[in-house]
Every structure is written in C-alpha cells, then in structure tokens.
Write a structure and sequence with these properties.
Elements: H1 2-33, H2 40-53, E1 59-60, E2 63-64, H3 71-83, H4 88-113, H5 117-129, H6 131-135, H7 143-158, H8 163-180, H9 187-199, H10 202-231, H11 241-248, H12 268-278, H13 289-303, H14 305-320, H15 325-331, H16 336-341, H17 347-390, H18 399-417, H19 429-452
Antiparallel strand pairs: 1-2
Helix pairs in contact: 1-4, 1-5, 2-3, 4-5, 4-7, 5-19, 7-8, 8-10, 9-10, 9-18, 11-13, 12-13, 14-18, 17-18, 17-19, 18-19
Membrane topology: Multi-pass membrane protein
Keywords: Cell membrane, Glycosyltransferase, Membrane, Transferase, Transmembrane, Transmembrane helix
GO molecular function, one term: pentosyltransferase activity
Length: 453
Amino acid sequence: MRKNINWKKKIGLIYILAIFLIGLYLRIQYIQNVSTHLVFDFKAYQEIAMNIFWRCGHTLGGEPIAFQGMGYPTVLGYVYRFFKSADVMVAKKFNVFCSMLTLIMLYFILIKITKRKFVIYTTYTIAALLPNYIAYNNVVGTEVFFTFLFASIILIQVYDFDRRIKYSLLGIVIGISALTKPFFMAYPVVLAFIDWLKNKEIKKAAILLLVTFMIMACVISPWTYRNYKKIGRLIPISYNSGYVLYINNNGYNTTGAWMPLKDVAAPKEVKQEVADILKKKNVKIAHEIEPIIKKQAKKWILNNPVEFFKLGCLRLQQTFFSGTWDLDAWTSNDMEKIEKAYPKWDKEKQTFYTRNKNFSKVMRDMFVYILNSFGIIYMFISSKVILKALFKKDHKLKYEILIPAINTAFFIAIDFVYEGQTRYNFPLLFLFAMSMSIMIDVVMKAFEDKVKS
C-alpha cells in the first residue's frame, strides 16, 4: 500500500514537472516568435523603465511622473540595469521568469489549501497552458508582474510560520503590490477579513490588519515623499484615480470603458479649466487636473446612482465577458508583415489563414467565458456560506472557499467603480481555474456517490 502511495506521488510530481516545462517552452516560443509593438500604457512603461535604466529618474518626456503605479516600471528599470540592456526582450524574459515563479507558487498554494488531486492538477494545468498567461509575457505591462505579487501574498497568507515574519512579509509585498496597482492599498482589510473568517479570532485579525497596513505604509512612504517633493502636493502613489473615475463615470459614457477626456460630459467651466492645463502639458504629466475632475466624477456618481450602476455593470461585462480581443490588440499586434503578404496570397491561402485566426479567437473566447463564469458563480455560491459565517461565532471557513471568493469580490468591486478592460481579469484567472476545478470535483464526487448508492 505504501509503495502505491509513493508511486502515485512520483507520478504526480512528474506530471507537474512536465506541465511546468511545457508551459515554459510555450512562453519562450511565444516571446521569440510572435512580434508585437508597444502602444498606450505599455509604451509609457517602457519609456519610464528606460529612463530609470539611463539614471534619469522616474520621468516621462523629461518630466517627473506619478500617473500610474511606479512599481512595475521601476523594477523593470533595475532589471535593465542588472542586465545592462533596455531591450524589450529583456522585459519579456523577465515576464517569463515571473510567470514561472507564479506557477511554482500556485502549486504550493494548492497543496496547502486542498487535498483534492483533481483540483490541484486541473488548476495547475490550466494556469500553465492558458493562452492569456502565455501571451501576456510578450507585453511590457503590469499583468504578469502583478499576478506574481498577488500569488506571493496568497502563498504567504496560507502557510503558518512565525507571525512576526509572516505579517512583515505580507506588509512588504502588499506595499510593492500597491505601488504597482494603487487600489491594493485597501488589501490589508481583505486580508484581515479572510483571516477572521478562517480563524474567528478578532484580535489576531485586528493585529494582522494594523501590522500589514503600517508596514505597507512604510513601503509606500518614500514614494509619497518623492511625489510631495517633485509635484508639490500629497499623492500617496498616483494621481490616476481621478482621471479614471472621471472618464468612466459621466453623462456621455455609454460603455463603462475608456473614452477621450475631451468628450466627457462636464460643466463648461470645468472643461475649460482642464483644457487650459492640457494646452501646456500631456495628460499623464498634468497632475493639476486630478483634484478638479475627481470632484466632478464623485458629484456625478452621487447625483446619478442608477446610471452609475448601469455603467458599473457594463464595466464588469467589459472585464469578464468581452472575449480575448486584448491578446490580438496588445500581445500580437505587429501585423505589418502579414498585411504586406496577405494581398499576394491566393484566395485559398487567404481563406485558410482567416478561418484559422477566427477559430483560434473563438476557442480562446469560449474557454475564458467558461472560466470567468465559473469564478463568478463560485463567488455567489460562496457568499451564502460567508454571510452565514458572519453571524455564527464558531463557524469557520476554509481557504478553499475564502481565497477565490473574497478576492474575486474585491477585484469586481474595484472594476465596478473605476474601469473595465479585458486584461483586468488577468490576476484572477488562476483563482477562476481553482473555482472551476472545485465545482467540477464536487459534482463528480456527488455523481460517484449516487452511482455507488
């Protein structure tokens, strides 16, 4: 019996290693063979990272900037310094490194929070081979790096060791995560809430909240001081939140997603004040507009709660149910060679290429729709159990429920209020894979028990 167990473990580890190597191979092949060019945020991240590489500071166009989180471009700039090259391929290889570390951490998270073999192997396989998790290694963006940080937090959270070290590590990693995605400044609350539902020790949860928040604040504070010194006002991390809130919540927004700043519905005096500032500065440099437009956005939301709710729902649709168009738009958008060659192909070759391209997108879309649906359904199903646990003193919940459900709810709340984009579902996809695997495993077990009886 013992020999059988050992063999099963060995076969399981061989499978995990094989999937890891296949995932690594696919990521390397993608970054080496799929051409792309940098646009929008990705282009800005690269320019900032290059400026850090050249020791010109965290600047854009020669001006100090804090438009978005500084975490990713700063780390990338120092990676460039380490390798003595600011070539985009270095950024892509760094993505692959972070992606594979995330996969390793995911395995250790899974074996800690569940004993279900189906859940462990299925979740791990999906995360290793998911097209989104392969393709985004080709982009100079926050997605892969932030997901690595997010997985690090969960890994530290689920393992028990010296609380002084554990809470300090959590505070540091949450701080770096917040510097990358500023909305993560709220994450200590999420962390403490999960801890309380898991252990039902209010004192322990309160200490966790206080310690992680204080250490996170210490991690963020040098950047906050830098912003005050360079920009002249208190900006904890970035001055992007007002801009995002304003363009996504106004009377002319019909999609819940990004729209040009100049087209936003606002009083004439507000539009004129913003226009006067933007005559002299690029929108990413113009920190002065944030207090003006943030106030306007909040005012519109308070005066139009029903319309805000509609836009929030549209944002969730944009984030979770608008397919995988982003993979074509950001990770494989250099179509110059194809566009030149396409007219020279005969009709049969053109048809074959277009059909395969469309088929590939449809298959990606279908899988992501299924994954996202399972993740959101799991959150709703778990909410009943979580609500019950809130009012029962000794009713403790497992990480198996809490980690996917609470984190999904947190990200959904952020997307609902601020902005919806397909790539914003990226950090949640491995949790959605976990949710789907758990739900399928429960159904299979129930079916087996019914058949046996």
